[in-house]
Please model this.
Amino acid sequence: MLDLLTFESDFKQTSNIDIPSEIMSGLKWWENKTVPAAVHNYLFKIFVTHCQHVHFYFNQTAFESRMASTDPATRPHPCYLNAIYLMACYFTSLDLATFPYLGDHEELFLGRTQSSLTESLAMSDRLMDFVRGSSLVTIYFLMRGRYIEGYHVHCGTARFALSCGLHRINSNELQEAREDHSTSNIGYLLSPPETEVELGDRLNAFWLIYWSDKLLSTLMGFIAALPGQAEPPDGISSVFPREIEYYEGNLRTSRNDTILDLLSPPAVATGPENQQGDSSFAMVLKALTLLEQASRLGQIHRSKPSESAIAALKDLHIATDRFAATIPAVAAPDEMAEENSVFDPSSIAVLMARTITLGALLEMNNTTASTDAQAYNARLTSAGYIASLVFYFGSENYSNADLATGYCWCLAAQVLLEHMHKVRGQLQGTIDPGSPQPAGAAASTEATSQSNIEGLTNSLTECESQLTRLLAALEKLSTVFPTLGEHIPHVLKIYMKY
Model:
Protein backbone atom coordinates (compact mmCIF):
# COMPACT_ATOMS: atom_id res chain seq x y z
CA MET A 1 0.00 0.00 0.00
CA LEU A 2 1.34 3.43 -0.95
CA ASP A 3 2.13 5.75 1.97
CA LEU A 4 0.46 8.90 0.64
CA LEU A 5 1.81 11.16 3.37
CA THR A 6 5.37 10.23 2.40
CA PHE A 7 4.44 10.35 -1.27
CA GLU A 8 3.06 13.89 -1.28
CA SER A 9 6.37 15.77 -1.09
CA ASP A 10 7.95 13.70 -3.85
CA PHE A 11 4.86 14.02 -6.02
CA LYS A 12 4.70 17.82 -5.80
CA GLN A 13 8.27 18.04 -7.05
CA THR A 14 7.30 16.28 -10.30
CA SER A 15 3.77 17.58 -10.86
CA ASN A 16 1.83 20.82 -10.59
CA ILE A 17 -1.32 18.93 -9.60
CA ASP A 18 -2.01 19.15 -5.87
CA ILE A 19 -3.35 16.04 -4.21
CA PRO A 20 -6.72 16.85 -2.57
CA SER A 21 -6.87 16.61 1.20
CA GLU A 22 -9.78 14.18 0.82
CA ILE A 23 -7.43 11.69 -0.83
CA MET A 24 -4.44 12.46 1.40
CA SER A 25 -6.44 12.10 4.62
CA GLY A 26 -7.83 8.71 3.71
CA LEU A 27 -11.46 9.89 4.01
CA LYS A 28 -13.94 7.73 2.12
CA TRP A 29 -14.75 10.45 -0.39
CA TRP A 30 -15.91 7.87 -2.93
CA GLU A 31 -18.92 6.98 -0.79
CA ASN A 32 -20.47 10.35 -1.59
CA LYS A 33 -22.88 10.28 -4.50
CA THR A 34 -21.26 13.47 -5.81
CA VAL A 35 -17.48 13.61 -6.00
CA PRO A 36 -16.07 16.49 -3.89
CA ALA A 37 -14.99 19.50 -5.96
CA ALA A 38 -11.31 19.14 -5.09
CA VAL A 39 -11.33 15.45 -6.06
CA HIS A 40 -13.18 16.27 -9.27
CA ASN A 41 -10.55 18.85 -10.20
CA TYR A 42 -7.78 16.40 -9.42
CA LEU A 43 -9.28 13.54 -11.45
CA PHE A 44 -10.14 15.88 -14.30
CA LYS A 45 -6.55 17.12 -14.50
CA ILE A 46 -5.27 13.54 -14.59
CA PHE A 47 -7.72 12.80 -17.38
CA VAL A 48 -6.76 15.88 -19.39
CA THR A 49 -3.08 15.06 -18.98
CA HIS A 50 -3.43 11.61 -20.51
CA CYS A 51 -6.61 11.48 -22.61
CA GLN A 52 -4.62 12.04 -25.83
CA HIS A 53 -3.28 8.50 -25.38
CA VAL A 54 -6.72 7.26 -26.42
CA HIS A 55 -7.41 10.12 -28.86
CA PHE A 56 -10.10 11.75 -26.75
CA TYR A 57 -10.09 15.39 -27.87
CA PHE A 58 -12.53 17.98 -26.55
CA ASN A 59 -12.69 21.68 -25.73
CA GLN A 60 -11.53 21.93 -22.15
CA THR A 61 -12.60 25.57 -21.75
CA ALA A 62 -16.17 24.79 -22.83
CA PHE A 63 -16.29 21.82 -20.45
CA GLU A 64 -15.13 23.93 -17.51
CA SER A 65 -17.68 26.60 -18.42
CA ARG A 66 -20.40 23.95 -18.27
CA MET A 67 -19.11 22.78 -14.89
CA ALA A 68 -19.42 26.35 -13.56
CA SER A 69 -23.00 26.72 -14.78
CA THR A 70 -25.77 27.08 -12.21
CA ASP A 71 -28.25 25.45 -14.58
CA PRO A 72 -28.28 21.67 -14.00
CA ALA A 73 -29.48 21.10 -17.56
CA THR A 74 -26.31 22.60 -19.04
CA ARG A 75 -23.81 20.99 -16.68
CA PRO A 76 -22.05 17.80 -17.85
CA HIS A 77 -24.27 14.77 -17.34
CA PRO A 78 -23.16 12.36 -14.59
CA CYS A 79 -22.56 9.69 -17.24
CA TYR A 80 -19.87 11.87 -18.79
CA LEU A 81 -18.36 12.92 -15.47
CA ASN A 82 -18.20 9.39 -14.09
CA ALA A 83 -16.64 8.14 -17.32
CA ILE A 84 -13.93 10.80 -16.93
CA TYR A 85 -13.34 9.71 -13.33
CA LEU A 86 -13.20 6.08 -14.49
CA MET A 87 -10.51 6.82 -17.06
CA ALA A 88 -8.57 9.01 -14.62
CA CYS A 89 -8.42 6.12 -12.15
CA TYR A 90 -7.35 3.83 -14.98
CA PHE A 91 -4.55 6.19 -15.99
CA THR A 92 -3.15 6.15 -12.43
CA SER A 93 -2.68 2.39 -12.76
CA LEU A 94 -0.32 2.77 -15.72
CA ASP A 95 3.35 3.60 -15.98
CA LEU A 96 2.62 7.15 -17.12
CA ALA A 97 3.34 9.44 -14.19
CA THR A 98 3.77 9.42 -10.44
CA PHE A 99 0.12 9.73 -9.46
CA PRO A 100 -1.24 7.96 -6.39
CA TYR A 101 -2.83 4.69 -7.41
CA LEU A 102 -6.61 4.99 -7.66
CA GLY A 103 -7.30 1.87 -9.72
CA ASP A 104 -9.29 0.34 -6.86
CA HIS A 105 -12.08 2.81 -7.68
CA GLU A 106 -12.47 1.78 -11.32
CA GLU A 107 -15.35 -0.63 -10.72
CA LEU A 108 -17.16 1.98 -8.61
CA PHE A 109 -17.03 4.59 -11.35
CA LEU A 110 -17.76 2.03 -14.04
CA GLY A 111 -20.97 1.08 -12.25
CA ARG A 112 -21.95 4.70 -11.77
CA THR A 113 -21.23 5.47 -15.42
CA GLN A 114 -23.34 2.58 -16.67
CA SER A 115 -26.26 3.53 -14.42
CA SER A 116 -26.17 7.18 -15.45
CA LEU A 117 -25.87 6.25 -19.13
CA THR A 118 -29.18 4.42 -18.79
CA GLU A 119 -30.70 7.47 -17.11
CA SER A 120 -29.45 9.76 -19.87
CA LEU A 121 -31.12 7.63 -22.53
CA ALA A 122 -34.31 7.16 -20.57
CA MET A 123 -34.76 10.91 -20.23
CA SER A 124 -33.17 11.89 -23.59
CA ASP A 125 -30.97 14.07 -21.42
CA ARG A 126 -27.75 15.66 -22.78
CA LEU A 127 -27.32 13.04 -25.46
CA MET A 128 -23.88 14.21 -26.60
CA ASP A 129 -22.68 13.49 -23.06
CA PHE A 130 -24.15 10.02 -23.48
CA VAL A 131 -22.10 9.58 -26.66
CA ARG A 132 -18.92 10.77 -24.96
CA GLY A 133 -19.47 8.71 -21.83
CA SER A 134 -20.26 5.56 -23.81
CA SER A 135 -17.16 6.07 -25.95
CA LEU A 136 -14.97 6.28 -22.86
CA VAL A 137 -16.52 3.11 -21.44
CA THR A 138 -15.75 1.34 -24.74
CA ILE A 139 -12.15 2.48 -24.55
CA TYR A 140 -11.88 1.46 -20.91
CA PHE A 141 -13.06 -2.07 -21.69
CA LEU A 142 -10.73 -2.22 -24.68
CA MET A 143 -7.73 -1.10 -22.64
CA ARG A 144 -8.56 -3.56 -19.89
CA GLY A 145 -8.82 -6.46 -22.33
CA ARG A 146 -12.57 -6.88 -21.75
CA TYR A 147 -13.24 -7.08 -25.48
CA ILE A 148 -16.72 -8.61 -25.55
CA GLU A 149 -18.06 -6.02 -23.12
CA GLY A 150 -16.29 -3.26 -25.04
CA TYR A 151 -17.66 -4.42 -28.36
CA HIS A 152 -21.16 -4.64 -26.92
CA VAL A 153 -21.02 -1.05 -25.65
CA HIS A 154 -19.34 0.15 -28.84
CA CYS A 155 -22.02 -1.29 -31.13
CA GLY A 156 -24.74 0.55 -29.24
CA THR A 157 -22.74 3.78 -29.20
CA ALA A 158 -21.94 3.56 -32.91
CA ARG A 159 -25.55 3.00 -33.96
CA PHE A 160 -26.71 5.78 -31.64
CA ALA A 161 -24.15 8.15 -33.17
CA LEU A 162 -25.62 7.37 -36.60
CA SER A 163 -29.09 8.23 -35.29
CA CYS A 164 -27.68 11.55 -34.11
CA GLY A 165 -26.28 12.29 -37.57
CA LEU A 166 -22.69 12.51 -36.35
CA HIS A 167 -21.53 10.51 -39.38
CA ARG A 168 -22.87 13.11 -41.82
CA ILE A 169 -21.35 16.42 -40.65
CA ASN A 170 -20.32 17.80 -44.01
CA SER A 171 -18.18 20.78 -43.01
CA ASN A 172 -15.78 22.17 -40.41
CA GLU A 173 -17.57 25.50 -40.84
CA LEU A 174 -20.57 26.11 -38.60
CA GLN A 175 -22.91 27.72 -41.12
CA GLU A 176 -22.41 25.01 -43.73
CA ALA A 177 -22.84 22.24 -41.17
CA ARG A 178 -26.02 23.82 -39.78
CA GLU A 179 -27.54 24.31 -43.23
CA ASP A 180 -26.85 20.72 -44.24
CA HIS A 181 -28.32 19.42 -40.99
CA SER A 182 -31.45 21.57 -41.32
CA THR A 183 -32.13 20.62 -44.94
CA SER A 184 -31.60 16.88 -44.44
CA ASN A 185 -34.69 14.73 -44.96
CA ILE A 186 -33.50 12.40 -42.19
CA GLY A 187 -34.76 13.04 -38.67
CA TYR A 188 -31.76 13.13 -36.33
CA LEU A 189 -31.89 12.96 -32.53
CA LEU A 190 -29.72 16.06 -32.17
CA SER A 191 -30.46 19.58 -33.26
CA PRO A 192 -27.81 21.43 -35.32
CA PRO A 193 -24.69 22.58 -33.42
CA GLU A 194 -24.99 26.09 -32.01
CA THR A 195 -21.33 27.10 -31.94
CA GLU A 196 -18.04 26.28 -33.65
CA VAL A 197 -16.81 24.70 -30.42
CA GLU A 198 -19.85 22.44 -30.27
CA LEU A 199 -19.29 21.48 -33.92
CA GLY A 200 -15.67 20.58 -33.20
CA ASP A 201 -16.58 18.50 -30.17
CA ARG A 202 -19.20 16.59 -32.17
CA LEU A 203 -16.75 15.82 -34.94
CA ASN A 204 -14.06 14.67 -32.52
CA ALA A 205 -16.60 12.56 -30.62
CA PHE A 206 -17.68 10.79 -33.79
CA TRP A 207 -14.15 10.13 -35.02
CA LEU A 208 -13.24 8.66 -31.63
CA ILE A 209 -16.04 6.14 -32.19
CA TYR A 210 -14.64 5.50 -35.65
CA TRP A 211 -11.14 4.99 -34.19
CA SER A 212 -12.53 2.44 -31.72
CA ASP A 213 -14.45 0.72 -34.51
CA LYS A 214 -11.34 0.23 -36.65
CA LEU A 215 -9.29 -0.97 -33.69
CA LEU A 216 -11.90 -3.56 -32.76
CA SER A 217 -12.20 -4.83 -36.33
CA THR A 218 -8.49 -4.75 -37.23
CA LEU A 219 -6.85 -5.82 -33.98
CA MET A 220 -9.54 -8.04 -32.50
CA GLY A 221 -11.38 -9.28 -35.58
CA PHE A 222 -14.85 -8.00 -34.67
CA ILE A 223 -17.30 -7.03 -37.40
CA ALA A 224 -17.31 -3.25 -37.86
CA ALA A 225 -20.28 -1.52 -36.26
CA LEU A 226 -20.01 1.54 -38.51
CA PRO A 227 -20.78 1.41 -42.23
CA GLY A 228 -18.27 2.16 -44.96
CA GLN A 229 -17.99 5.48 -46.73
CA ALA A 230 -20.12 4.36 -49.69
CA GLU A 231 -22.93 2.43 -48.01
CA PRO A 232 -26.15 4.51 -48.18
CA PRO A 233 -28.06 5.76 -46.35
CA ASP A 234 -25.72 5.49 -43.38
CA GLY A 235 -22.42 5.88 -45.24
CA ILE A 236 -19.82 7.98 -43.45
CA SER A 237 -19.52 11.41 -45.03
CA SER A 238 -18.36 13.46 -42.03
CA VAL A 239 -15.29 15.58 -42.61
CA PHE A 240 -12.10 14.79 -40.74
CA PRO A 241 -11.65 16.95 -37.62
CA ARG A 242 -9.33 19.89 -37.20
CA GLU A 243 -7.29 20.72 -34.11
CA ILE A 244 -9.42 21.82 -31.14
CA GLU A 245 -7.96 25.35 -31.38
CA TYR A 246 -9.34 25.69 -34.91
CA TYR A 247 -12.93 25.77 -33.67
CA GLU A 248 -12.11 28.38 -31.03
CA GLY A 249 -10.81 30.85 -33.62
CA ASN A 250 -13.71 30.61 -36.07
CA LEU A 251 -11.25 30.33 -38.96
CA ARG A 252 -12.24 29.86 -42.59
CA THR A 253 -9.17 28.28 -44.11
CA SER A 254 -9.84 24.57 -43.72
CA ARG A 255 -10.60 22.08 -46.40
CA ASN A 256 -13.41 19.61 -45.79
CA ASP A 257 -11.98 16.23 -46.73
CA THR A 258 -13.65 12.89 -46.10
CA ILE A 259 -12.87 9.18 -46.30
CA LEU A 260 -14.01 9.29 -49.93
CA ASP A 261 -11.38 11.94 -50.66
CA LEU A 262 -8.75 9.79 -48.98
CA LEU A 263 -9.53 6.65 -50.96
CA SER A 264 -10.56 8.12 -54.32
CA PRO A 265 -8.31 9.30 -57.17
CA PRO A 266 -7.87 13.11 -57.24
CA ALA A 267 -10.29 13.43 -60.18
CA VAL A 268 -13.04 11.76 -58.13
CA ALA A 269 -12.33 13.27 -54.71
CA THR A 270 -14.91 15.82 -53.61
CA GLY A 271 -12.68 18.12 -51.56
CA PRO A 272 -10.26 20.78 -52.82
CA GLU A 273 -6.53 20.35 -52.88
CA ASN A 274 -4.68 20.34 -49.59
CA GLN A 275 -4.99 23.92 -48.34
CA GLN A 276 -3.97 23.15 -44.79
CA GLY A 277 -2.18 20.24 -43.17
CA ASP A 278 -4.15 17.54 -41.39
CA SER A 279 -4.73 17.78 -37.68
CA SER A 280 -2.81 15.31 -35.55
CA PHE A 281 -5.92 13.19 -35.00
CA ALA A 282 -6.91 13.32 -38.68
CA MET A 283 -3.48 12.03 -39.73
CA VAL A 284 -3.83 9.04 -37.43
CA LEU A 285 -7.43 8.43 -38.53
CA LYS A 286 -6.50 8.40 -42.20
CA ALA A 287 -3.61 6.04 -41.61
CA LEU A 288 -5.83 3.72 -39.57
CA THR A 289 -8.46 3.78 -42.32
CA LEU A 290 -5.84 2.60 -44.81
CA LEU A 291 -4.61 -0.10 -42.43
CA GLU A 292 -8.13 -1.42 -41.86
CA GLN A 293 -8.86 -1.45 -45.60
CA ALA A 294 -5.59 -3.27 -46.32
CA SER A 295 -6.25 -5.86 -43.63
CA ARG A 296 -9.81 -6.47 -44.80
CA LEU A 297 -8.97 -6.72 -48.51
CA GLY A 298 -6.05 -9.01 -47.73
CA GLN A 299 -8.28 -11.35 -45.76
CA ILE A 300 -10.82 -11.40 -48.58
CA HIS A 301 -8.18 -12.29 -51.15
CA ARG A 302 -6.53 -14.96 -49.02
CA SER A 303 -9.86 -16.67 -48.33
CA LYS A 304 -11.06 -16.41 -51.93
CA PRO A 305 -8.42 -15.14 -54.40
CA SER A 306 -9.81 -12.92 -57.15
CA GLU A 307 -8.68 -10.36 -59.68
CA SER A 308 -11.10 -7.83 -58.24
CA ALA A 309 -9.45 -8.06 -54.82
CA ILE A 310 -6.02 -7.59 -56.37
CA ALA A 311 -7.29 -4.58 -58.32
CA ALA A 312 -8.78 -3.11 -55.13
CA LEU A 313 -5.46 -3.59 -53.33
CA LYS A 314 -3.62 -1.82 -56.16
CA ASP A 315 -6.01 1.14 -55.93
CA LEU A 316 -5.54 1.19 -52.16
CA HIS A 317 -1.78 1.14 -52.63
CA ILE A 318 -2.02 4.25 -54.82
CA ALA A 319 -4.21 6.00 -52.25
CA THR A 320 -1.77 5.05 -49.48
CA ASP A 321 1.22 6.40 -51.41
CA ARG A 322 -0.70 9.60 -52.09
CA PHE A 323 -1.52 10.06 -48.41
CA ALA A 324 2.01 9.18 -47.28
CA ALA A 325 3.32 12.05 -49.40
CA THR A 326 1.22 14.51 -47.35
CA ILE A 327 2.59 13.44 -43.94
CA PRO A 328 5.16 15.95 -42.69
CA ALA A 329 8.78 14.86 -42.64
CA VAL A 330 10.49 13.81 -39.42
CA ALA A 331 13.90 14.98 -38.25
CA ALA A 332 16.89 13.18 -39.78
CA PRO A 333 18.69 10.74 -37.44
CA ASP A 334 21.70 13.06 -37.08
CA GLU A 335 19.42 15.91 -35.98
CA MET A 336 18.20 14.20 -32.85
CA ALA A 337 19.50 11.86 -30.19
CA GLU A 338 17.26 9.16 -28.83
CA GLU A 339 18.21 9.80 -25.25
CA ASN A 340 17.47 13.54 -25.62
CA SER A 341 14.16 13.29 -27.44
CA VAL A 342 11.31 15.34 -25.98
CA PHE A 343 7.62 14.56 -26.10
CA ASP A 344 5.89 16.73 -28.68
CA PRO A 345 2.28 15.73 -29.44
CA SER A 346 2.41 16.90 -33.06
CA SER A 347 5.70 15.10 -33.72
CA ILE A 348 4.41 11.94 -32.08
CA ALA A 349 1.28 12.12 -34.26
CA VAL A 350 3.45 12.33 -37.38
CA LEU A 351 5.42 9.28 -36.27
CA MET A 352 2.24 7.36 -35.51
CA ALA A 353 0.71 8.27 -38.88
CA ARG A 354 3.87 7.21 -40.71
CA THR A 355 4.09 3.95 -38.77
CA ILE A 356 0.45 3.00 -39.33
CA THR A 357 0.68 3.92 -43.03
CA LEU A 358 3.70 1.63 -43.36
CA GLY A 359 1.67 -1.01 -41.56
CA ALA A 360 -1.00 -0.65 -44.25
CA LEU A 361 1.61 -1.10 -46.99
CA LEU A 362 2.98 -4.12 -45.14
CA GLU A 363 -0.49 -5.66 -44.97
CA MET A 364 -1.07 -5.10 -48.68
CA ASN A 365 2.17 -6.81 -49.67
CA ASN A 366 1.54 -9.53 -47.09
CA THR A 367 -1.34 -10.73 -49.27
CA THR A 368 0.95 -12.11 -52.01
CA ALA A 369 4.31 -12.26 -50.19
CA SER A 370 4.32 -16.06 -50.17
CA THR A 371 4.34 -16.26 -53.98
CA ASP A 372 5.69 -12.92 -55.16
CA ALA A 373 9.33 -12.00 -54.43
CA GLN A 374 8.66 -8.32 -55.11
CA ALA A 375 5.81 -8.24 -52.59
CA TYR A 376 7.96 -10.17 -50.09
CA ASN A 377 10.80 -7.66 -50.29
CA ALA A 378 8.41 -4.68 -50.25
CA ARG A 379 6.82 -6.07 -47.09
CA LEU A 380 10.27 -6.49 -45.54
CA THR A 381 11.17 -2.91 -46.48
CA SER A 382 8.03 -1.62 -44.73
CA ALA A 383 8.89 -3.63 -41.62
CA GLY A 384 12.41 -2.17 -41.64
CA TYR A 385 11.09 1.38 -41.95
CA ILE A 386 8.67 0.77 -39.07
CA ALA A 387 11.56 -0.41 -36.91
CA SER A 388 13.59 2.64 -37.95
CA LEU A 389 10.81 5.00 -36.89
CA VAL A 390 10.91 3.50 -33.40
CA PHE A 391 14.25 5.26 -32.97
CA TYR A 392 12.63 8.62 -33.69
CA PHE A 393 10.14 8.14 -30.85
CA GLY A 394 12.95 7.88 -28.35
CA SER A 395 12.90 5.34 -25.54
CA GLU A 396 11.26 7.85 -23.20
CA ASN A 397 8.37 8.33 -25.63
CA TYR A 398 7.54 4.72 -26.53
CA SER A 399 4.57 4.92 -24.17
CA ASN A 400 3.24 7.98 -26.01
CA ALA A 401 2.40 5.91 -29.10
CA ASP A 402 -1.16 4.68 -29.58
CA LEU A 403 -2.57 1.17 -29.77
CA ALA A 404 -2.67 1.04 -33.58
CA THR A 405 1.01 1.98 -33.70
CA GLY A 406 1.82 -0.83 -31.28
CA TYR A 407 -0.13 -3.24 -33.47
CA CYS A 408 2.00 -2.21 -36.46
CA TRP A 409 5.13 -2.78 -34.37
CA CYS A 410 3.84 -6.33 -33.82
CA LEU A 411 3.25 -6.79 -37.56
CA ALA A 412 6.76 -5.58 -38.36
CA ALA A 413 8.30 -7.85 -35.72
CA GLN A 414 6.55 -10.90 -37.17
CA VAL A 415 7.75 -10.06 -40.69
CA LEU A 416 11.32 -9.64 -39.46
CA LEU A 417 11.14 -12.96 -37.61
CA GLU A 418 9.88 -14.74 -40.71
CA HIS A 419 12.66 -13.19 -42.76
CA MET A 420 15.28 -14.22 -40.22
CA HIS A 421 13.99 -17.77 -40.44
CA LYS A 422 14.30 -17.71 -44.22
CA VAL A 423 17.79 -16.24 -44.09
CA ARG A 424 18.97 -18.90 -41.68
CA GLY A 425 17.44 -21.54 -43.93
CA GLN A 426 19.16 -20.00 -46.93
CA LEU A 427 22.50 -20.06 -45.13
CA GLN A 428 21.94 -23.71 -44.28
CA GLY A 429 20.73 -24.52 -47.79
CA THR A 430 17.29 -25.67 -46.63
CA ILE A 431 15.10 -23.09 -48.42
CA ASP A 432 13.07 -24.29 -51.39
CA PRO A 433 14.62 -22.63 -54.48
CA GLY A 434 11.13 -22.03 -55.83
CA SER A 435 10.03 -19.87 -52.89
CA PRO A 436 10.50 -16.08 -52.78
CA GLN A 437 14.12 -15.37 -51.93
CA PRO A 438 14.97 -13.13 -48.98
CA ALA A 439 16.44 -9.73 -49.66
CA GLY A 440 20.20 -10.06 -49.70
CA ALA A 441 20.12 -13.45 -51.40
CA ALA A 442 21.71 -13.75 -54.80
CA ALA A 443 19.62 -14.80 -57.77
CA SER A 444 21.75 -17.90 -58.10
CA THR A 445 20.69 -20.95 -56.11
CA GLU A 446 24.26 -21.49 -55.01
CA ALA A 447 23.60 -20.37 -51.48
CA THR A 448 27.10 -21.22 -50.33
CA SER A 449 28.84 -18.59 -52.49
CA GLN A 450 30.92 -16.23 -50.38
CA SER A 451 29.20 -13.04 -51.56
CA ASN A 452 25.77 -14.50 -50.94
CA ILE A 453 26.72 -15.66 -47.46
CA GLU A 454 28.02 -12.20 -46.62
CA GLY A 455 24.85 -10.51 -47.87
CA LEU A 456 22.61 -12.90 -45.95
CA THR A 457 24.66 -12.54 -42.78
CA ASN A 458 24.44 -8.75 -42.96
CA SER A 459 20.70 -8.99 -43.54
CA LEU A 460 20.33 -11.26 -40.51
CA THR A 461 22.34 -8.90 -38.29
CA GLU A 462 20.27 -5.91 -39.37
CA CYS A 463 17.00 -7.75 -38.74
CA GLU A 464 18.12 -8.78 -35.26
CA SER A 465 18.92 -5.15 -34.42
CA GLN A 466 15.56 -3.96 -35.74
CA LEU A 467 13.72 -6.70 -33.87
CA THR A 468 15.45 -5.82 -30.60
CA ARG A 469 14.33 -2.21 -31.01
CA LEU A 470 10.73 -3.22 -31.75
CA LEU A 471 10.48 -5.59 -28.80
CA ALA A 472 11.84 -2.94 -26.43
CA ALA A 473 9.25 -0.44 -27.67
CA LEU A 474 6.44 -3.00 -27.42
CA GLU A 475 7.39 -3.91 -23.88
CA LYS A 476 7.25 -0.24 -22.84
CA LEU A 477 4.00 0.48 -24.68
CA SER A 478 2.33 -2.60 -23.18
CA THR A 479 2.53 -0.86 -19.78
CA VAL A 480 0.09 1.70 -21.17
CA PHE A 481 -1.97 -0.70 -23.30
CA PRO A 482 -2.02 -4.10 -21.59
CA THR A 483 -3.91 -5.28 -24.68
CA LEU A 484 -0.59 -5.38 -26.50
CA GLY A 485 0.70 -7.79 -23.90
CA GLU A 486 -1.38 -10.45 -25.62
CA HIS A 487 0.39 -9.88 -28.94
CA ILE A 488 3.93 -9.83 -27.54
CA PRO A 489 3.93 -13.47 -26.31
CA HIS A 490 2.84 -14.49 -29.82
CA VAL A 491 5.79 -12.60 -31.30
CA LEU A 492 8.17 -14.09 -28.75
CA LYS A 493 6.79 -17.56 -29.42
CA ILE A 494 7.66 -17.13 -33.09
CA TYR A 495 11.07 -15.79 -32.04
CA MET A 496 11.78 -18.89 -29.95
CA LYS A 497 10.56 -21.10 -32.80
CA TYR A 498 12.94 -19.46 -35.26
User: Anything to note?
Assistant: Confidence is low (pLDDT under 50) at residues 1-15, 333-342, 442-447.
